[in-house]
């Protein structure tokens, strides 16, 4: 697999900054010296225009080379100025020149320029030492500029690579599983924004991992609870079947009792399997629902009538629905009736003799609210956080006729949430319990 070579970002940034500063220096020098050269050419042309007979005394046309372009022209007094080695000649406007007599006017006329050129020796060639000596100030300026560029590049690279190093350390920490590590995120620049994003990502990943771990533990507990719940009915069936097979139940009364226990246990086992299948479908969002406009008061009245006999057997007073205006709600009536059956069954089973159970339904601008209230024993605060957990029971005692799978409340909440509502339980030990179903307006 191809891998890019690992580079030092700080070094690269330093070199890049140095290159930018150097190019800026060269460009500014080139621009400055270009205009200086133009000025000198204009000065030379002006001098020639004013004194055409003294062209031999002017410096030659400026022709700078690479070093002139890079670090500037040589020091004044060498190539780009008047030739001070030549003997000074009086100018035509010099009134202090040696006086001339009229008789000598023709003899004093200026000689041709060729004689002057012949009289001027060629300028001496500059040696390397003279060139270097002339350019010493330019080299010093160049060295100072280079040092300043290096210092500036190092400072800028350190300024920019410090947050990069922090990001790299954070990424390595996250890769190693240390999701508690936090990257410093001071300021409002892009580095700080990336740091905050990575910190938020670490928090979300940590939360998701914690949720997955908790789900794993819950699944392990669920499997253990399923095995525990199945073991009782299966053991009972195995015992009764063995007794009948060995002829221990030949007595008609004993045989009838064994068959009755087997039927009860089979129903309990079937109920448990059915609840498990429904719970699995709810978790996978595959449970079919058929919502339709439903009149709540009529539906709740039918559910109450179906539980009157069980309430009377448990010495529970089950109040009828109070009169009121019709309440219409779009729900799956069969699934909602299943939830109400579960809540009423729990109230009748656990409220205790002498308690009363009431159902109320209200509808306003905030939505629809259905409350199942009992005046029974209530639930202690220690148990309330866990009552929706699968197979959780406040009372671990169980009779052979107990047909509760321990999944009823969990399934009831899943059915209500699948239809857009919420189910909460409020209870005070010794005072009673409230099961509250709420559907928002809409």
Classified by CATH, the class of the largest domain is Alpha Beta
> Which regions have little confidence, pLDDT < 50, spanning 5+ residues?
1-7, 77-120
Counting copies of identical and different chains, the oligomeric state is single chain
- What portion of residues is helical? 40-55%
Provide the number of structural domains.
3
**CATH fold-level topology of the largest domain:** Heat Shock Protein 90
Name given to the CATH homologous superfamily of the largest domain: Histidine kinase-like ATPase, C-terminal domain
Q: Architecture of the largest domain, CATH level 2? A: 2-Layer Sandwich
Number of helical stretches of at least 4 residues: 11
Q: Radius of gyration from the CA trace?
A: 52 Å
**Separation of the first and last Cα atoms:** 57 Å
Order of helices and strands: HHHHHHHEHHEEHEEHEE
The helix-and-strand class reads: alpha+beta
Return the average pLDDT rounded to an integer.
Answer: 75
Could you give a short account of the major beta sheet? 5 strands, mixed
Order of strands across the main sheet: 2-4-5-7-6
Query: Which band does the percent of strand residues land in?
Result: 5-15%
Any idea what the shape is?
A: elongated
Per DSSP E runs of 2 or more residues, the count of β-strands stands at 7
């Amino acid at each position: 697999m191809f891998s890019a070579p690992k580079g030092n970002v700080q070094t690269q940034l330093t070199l890049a900054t140095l290159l930018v500063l150097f190019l800026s220096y060269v460009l500014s020098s080139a621009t400055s010296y270009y205009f200086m050269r133009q000025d000198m050419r204009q000065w030379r042309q002006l001098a020639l225009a004013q004194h055409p007979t003294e062209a031999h005394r002017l410096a030659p046309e400026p022709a700078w080379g690479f070093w002139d372009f890079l670090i500037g022209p040589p020091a004044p007094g060498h190539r780009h100025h008047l030739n001070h080695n030549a003997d000074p000649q009086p100018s035509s406007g010099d009134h202090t020149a040696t006086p001339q007599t009229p008789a000598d006017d023709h003899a004093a006329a200026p000689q041709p320029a060729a004689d002057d050129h012949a009289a001027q020796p060629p300028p001496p060639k500059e040696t390397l030492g003279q060139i270097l000596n002339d350019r010493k100030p330019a080299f010093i300026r160049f060295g100072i500029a280079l040092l300043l560029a290096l210092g500036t590049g190092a400072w800028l690279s350190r300024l920019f690579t410090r947050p990069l190093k922090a990001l790299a350390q954070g990424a390595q920490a996250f890769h190693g599983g240390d999701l508690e590590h936090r990257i410093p995120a001071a300021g409002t620049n892009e580095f700080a924004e990336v740091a905050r994003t990575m910190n938020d990502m670490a928090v979300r990943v940590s939360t998701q991992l914690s949720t997955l771990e908790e789900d794993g533990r819950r699944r392990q507990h669920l499997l253990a609870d399923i095995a525990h719940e199945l073991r009782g009915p299966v053991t009972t069936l195995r015992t009764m079947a063995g007794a009948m097979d060995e002829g221990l139940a030949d007595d008609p009364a004993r045989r009838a009792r064994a068959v009755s226990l087997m039927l009860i246990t089979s129903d309990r086992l079937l109920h448990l399997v059915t609840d498990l299948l429904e719970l699995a479908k709810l978790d996978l969002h595959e449970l079919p629902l058929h919502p339709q406009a439903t009149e709540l008061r009529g539906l709740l009245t039918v559910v109450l009538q179906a539980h009157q006999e069980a309430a009377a057997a448990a010495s529970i007073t089950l109040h009828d629905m109070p009169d009121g205006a019709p309440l219409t709600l779009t729900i799956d009536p069969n699934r909602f009736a299943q939830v109400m059956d579960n809540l009423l069954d729990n109230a009748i089973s656990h409220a205790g003799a002498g308690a009363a159970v009431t159902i109320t339904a209200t509808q306003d601008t905030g939505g629809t609210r259905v409350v199942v209230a009992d005046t029974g024993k209530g639930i202690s605060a220690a148990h309330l956080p866990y009552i929706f957990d699968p197979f959780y029971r406040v009372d671990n005692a169980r009779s052979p006729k107990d047909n509760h799978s321990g999944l009823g409340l969990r399934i009831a909440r899943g059915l209500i949430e699948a239809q857009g509502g919420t189910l909460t339980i409020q209870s005070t030990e010794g005072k009673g319990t409230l099961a509250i179903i709420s559907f928002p307006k809409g």
